[in-house]
């Protein structure tokens, strides 16, 4: 299996977000990585963002 084709900066950010060692991330099967990214995106979407509670009305 060949390593993922991502930039070093992207790989480091993904490893931090997914809480996995960089070496594991680079050799993770692509379908599993995509599943983990989708789960992370779902969690981020469910979090209320600080800008939503700004109090400004239009």
What does this structure look like?
This is YycC family protein. Pfam families: YycC (PF14174). This protein has 58 residues and is an all-alpha fold. The radius of gyration is 15 Å and the shape is elongated. The N and C termini lie far apart (53 Å). It has a domain at 8-45. It contains three helices and no strands. The relative contact order is 0.13.
Mean pLDDT: 83
Q: What class, by secondary structure content?
A: mainly alpha
Order of helices and strands: HHH
Q: How many alpha or pi helices?
A: 3
Give a short account of the largest sheet. none
End-to-end separation in angstroms reads: 53 Å
- Contiguous low-pLDDT stretches (5 residues minimum) are none
Radius of gyration: 15 Å
Number of strands: 0
Binned, the helix content reads 55-70%
Strand content: under 5%
Characterize the overall form: elongated
Protein name: YycC family protein
InterPro entries: YycC
Pfam family, one: YycC
Organism: Paenibacillus woosongensis
Furnish the topology, listing elements before pairings:
Layout: H1 8-18, H2 22-26, H3 30-46
């Amino acid at each position: 299996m060949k390593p993922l084709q991502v930039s070093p900066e992207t790989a480091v950010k993904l490893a931090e977000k997914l809480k996995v060692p960089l070496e594991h991330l680079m050799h993770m099967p692509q379908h599993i990585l995509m599943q983990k990214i989708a789960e992370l995106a779902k969690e981020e979407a469910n979090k209320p963002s600080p800008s939503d509670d700004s109090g400004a009305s239009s």
